[in-house]
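Entry 14. Ran structure prediction on the chain below.
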Amino acid sequence: MIIGITGISGAGKSTVAKEICKIENGKYVNADKIAKDLAKNGEEYYKEIVKNFGIEILKEDAELDRKKLASIVFENKEKKKIIDDITNKYVVPKIEEEAKNADGYDIAIIDVPLLFESRLNEICDVVISVIASKETCIKRIMDRDKINEESALKRIKNQKSENFFKENSDYCIINETKEKLNIQINDILNKIR
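Output, structure tokens:
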């Protein structure tokens, strides 16, 4: 079984994915980690990003400045489409390969922010979206990425709405507190086992 985890930035997708993996002997496939690995200097994904965005998105050591790249793409819809297209070309096939190669695990959990946009929802048996209040998400993004409130808000505004996730997922988790989160996860797992 492949379970797709998606939702609003800062809602706690990774927390939910890791928790399900612990409970169900799941293989955790993290889209962000795969993207980071493929974005290292010398990789094809890296080369195409630099070709499209220029050397000004590189740090002194020639690695990608992910913060700078994020600020560019979250300010400009055309640039966001370019990075999404490059990501779909290099990262999405790797995520699919990892999810389908889960020998020794009972399930595979794919943690993908752009699950629907990448069409990876099509390989999932179950899709769970994770949402939280706007205030909670902003605070989590600021803490996680060490950015200001304005930058965190721009990221949220560039994403699908809460209603989109509710309407297009098999299940939806509201992640505000640890206690309620675990109850919701166990409830969903009892339904899909």
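The two ends are 10 Å apart (CA to CA). Will compare against last week's run tomorrow.
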